[in-house]
What does this fold into?
Amino acid sequence: MTVELTEIEHPAAEAPVPQDDEGGGRLRWIALGVVVVVWVILGVIFHGKGTQDLPVSQLTAFQEWLNELRNTIEDAKFNGNPIFLPIDWLSEALDWTVTQLQNLFVSDSSRPQGVAQVGWAGVVALAVWVAYALSGLRIAILALAVMLSFGWLGYWEQSIDTLIITGVSVVICVIIGLPTGIWMSRSKRVTSVLTPVLDTMQTMPSFAYLGPLVLIFGIGNPGAVVATLIYALPPLIRISAYGLSTVSPSTVEATTALGSTSTQLMTKVQLPMARRTIIVGLNQTIMAALSMAIIAAFIAGPGLGIPIIDALSVLNVGIAFVSGMCIVFMAIMLDRATSAAGERSEATSRREVNGQRRRLILGISAAVAVVVVAISHNQLRWNVFPDSEWGRRIANWVNDATDTISNSIGQFTRWLSDAFTEVFLNPPFGLDAWFVDAPWWLVSLGILAVAILLGGAGKEATPRLAAAVALGAAAVLMSGYWADSPLDMSWVIYWGAVVALLIGSSAVGGGGALIPTAASISLIFAVGLWNDSMVTLTMTLVATLFVMIFGIVVGVWMGRSRRVDATVRPFLDGLQTLPALVYLVPALAFFPAGRFLAIIAAVLYAAPVAIKITADGVRSVAGPTVEAAQSLGSSRWQMIGKVQLPMSKGSIVLSANQGLLFVLSMVVIGGLVGGGGLGFLVINGFSQREDFGKGLAAGIAITALGIMLDRITVHTAARYGRADTA
Amino acid sequence: MTATVDDVGAAASTDGQSALTVNNLWKVFGPRADKIVGSPEADLSRADLLAQTGCTAAVRDVSFEVSPGEVFVVMGLSGSGKSTLVRCLTRLIEPTAGQVLIDGEDVVSMSDTRLRELRRHHVSMVFQHFGLLPHRKVIDNVGYGLEVRGTSKADRRSRAQEMVDLVGLSGNENAYPDQLSGGMQQRVGLARALAVDPSILLFDEPFSALDPLIRRDMQNEVIRLHHEVGKTMVFITHDLSEALKLGDRILIMRDGALIQMGTPAEVVATPADDYVRDFVSEVPRSHVLTLAWVMRPPRPDEALTGPEMAPDTIVRDAARRVIDAADPVKVVDNGQLLGVVDQDDILRVIVAEETPS
Ligand SMILES: Nc1ncnc2c1ncn2[C@@H]1O[C@H](COP(=O)(O)OP(=O)(O)O)[C@@H](O)[C@H]1O
Ligand SMILES: [Mg+2]
It folds into this structure.
């Protein structure tokens, strides 16, 4: 028992958790029922009124103002305004780094320099050697196959570009992330300050911050690297801080007692002992970086994102499939290589006997790699990857195959898509009737009521309610739906108020879901994207419903049987390493473009997380409890329904939370394939200069939706789940 | 390394200095802990203090002295503040109030650098959960303390090897901790503590995590090492038989406070209160009590012709001769008659064991 250090936390710190008494719980459900009934009745009465539906090309005053802002910033940058100098330097440094690496490694006839310093053969040799040195022979062979496949599939340059963007971002992540993780592990204050920042970074869908980054860093290499960096940084900081702070306290104490300085403690004790955990964090950071490096193609980042996005947007499954293959292979290579490196790092440090031989082999193979690099530098054949027909051939096969499929079962999938849309989305039955086609005030009040009933209003509910009303009123005034041109400065005041309220309410603590929800709703309204946000919200809710069904069914199945778990889990782990965009490809192969397609991709993307969390929850129901229930003669279904599900309630709410966030970030990407809503506006904003402001506003609305869904579920979990979900 | 217990003891008696002195030591955990000591709240019971102030007084007003070469045992139930007390000695936990002197030097006011010197050279500790470095071989674990103080690699290897041999782990120096049994791991912990050649060794329940047979081996190992290297030892345990077996003196704690301090025989013979009595009730008293504790003044009618014995003879060892002798045994110290012991006195001790009061 490691009592000594854990005891710091427990005395007196355990505030009594408010328990719902039976009566209160029932009242709440009745109230919820009333809210739903009123919502439905009023929705029917006011159907189609006050939906705030604006055509894509019509910008509200705020969105115009964002366009202005963009112009102002561009002018300022162009004129060398000193405010932007540091950012300019940073952009230039990033751009320079990426360009140098491209000159070094990427032969591309479309670039001025044409031929790279190190040709493809040299790059392959280096990659294989690194894989061998870090992760062993099997990974080296994998790396060889994967690297060659890039060329054979016809995406050599794009693949190396993606590797460069990913690599540069990951290196910066390590430079920033590891010291930050160390800092967090040493100071509770730093942890409490950084945790909400990291939370926000991780709940923000990747689409949301592309716009602001473009505004600041411009499109192309710098924007791509910064976007990738921001997206990939949190896991490394989090996991390394966790790994360092959970290093066995008795070892830390024992080595302190021997007179270690704090530097000695870090380098000789904590870092070595946390090494494996840190490598796990690094693995997640690399996978996240890859996923974002591909999405960064939306802001003209180089690499594999470009062909896959182009192909998806013209619904060319074949090309999307081939470039998707490159992405998947790359993901597998990077994932396997880092995991194997983690496993090996201990083994190699222990096997000192073979050190001599290992060094010899590494030396010889390094020499071989250098020779190959030299040859690839001089000989064109080994420099520019020879043309290969394979990529085009596979793309054609796939297109033929999908044509055949859609000829034979196309009718069926189209029917399925229509039926689904009819039942779950379209009015009168679908959720659109509640959100998209109902008046804004009804929907706002409805969401607020549900948020309060599920997630609570927080302590001192009256002032909070007043603040919420004030926020709403301000949003209505600011939105520009009715007024023509609001005062210029008032935006700043409004944003100040929203941000201050959000920060304030989370700092004061004891809050419920009320304030964050009110702030989010009013934000969505104020940026003038009410209707589009509701389209995205409906899709998110429907997709999450299915994610939860899968999560519970498969999760319970896995949680109850180790065998099932052992077979299914590697499959889920594999799915989770795939970059987000790839999920659209199989969905597109079978179903027509539209909202249904975006929902399918989102379900595919989010289900693994939800399943794993539920499975872990069911598994963690204590053995003795299950045994006791068994001895009382529970049947299998009684066991699931009365013991395992209720006891893993907390995990299920947590999986809903994660499911919602994953679904949201994928649903907006579905804007690429006819999903509509906010995602479409973001993408449109990058391609149409005059719609940029609207795209930026859509990014804000996505963030607001994310915060709202996250806060409601988190507070619901805190009230209904047990402490283990916090 | 050559000094024996007796040498050290002799040295101590000449210069009269104790190895470790603790005066009025307090450790209070919780908000505004420093405000508690000296206030009326300090007199509250531990539960009341926690309820009223949210603070836990883990160590309250403890004072004691340990002589060079002595094995000093601190005993108490779990939660009584033993670990906190022993950690305050080298400020692994900062004391809230009070004084700690090691070799006459005040630990509480030491600078960080000086404190590190103290930990590197003078005091080392053995922990209940070993606290070994899993990524290092045994030999490098043992050499850790030398490494952090800057000893060259060759020197620390040879010194570490010596220690590995001393604790009976020869041949395992290249193993990793997870390849060793619990008992062997604790031997590594012991060797690591000894490697820096400290003058004081602290043990915090080092054998509680081991199973009973191995625990006995390790206790004997400590006794052997004490004979060989003669360090001053402060040994924490919750196990009375361990305390009686190892301790020259025993300090008993409850709820952070000192309840009783004395030799094993004193503690067993005259428990200070019910808490201590409860502790000692299970002990075979004849194994602990000396004749000094069972003797009585001679009755006028008794013949003082029996054999003579020393007052520090353990009852169990004296029993045979007392029972065999026709007359009461005389307890004599330096030629002076202190009292007598007869069959009945001995039997009372032994019978009392079987029907504990
Ligand atoms: N870091 C800490 N913070 C708060 N209370 C503590 C801390 N460490 C120990 N305590 C409390 O101090 C008391 C004594 O603990 P400890 O010294 O570990 O006792 P022992 O070693 O005798 O079992 C216990 O009540 C424990 O809960
Ligand atoms: Mg303890």
User: Anything to note?
Assistant: Chain A has three domains: 2-68+435-458+511-721, 81-388, 459-510.
